[in-house]
Amino acid sequence: MTSVFQRALGADFDRLHPQLQRRFGVDGGADVGCVGHGVMERVWRGCAVTAPMLRLGTLRHVLFPETGVDVPFTIENYAYTDSYRRPTLTFVRTFQVTTHRRRRFDATMVWSERRGTLVDYLGTHQHLAVDLHLGVDRTGALTIRSGGQRFRGGVPCPAALTGHARLREWYDDRRDRFGIEVEVSNPLVGPVFGYTGSFTVSYLRPDRAPVPAAVRPLRENPRD
Question: 54 with 63: CB under 8 angstroms?
Answer without folding.
Answer: yes
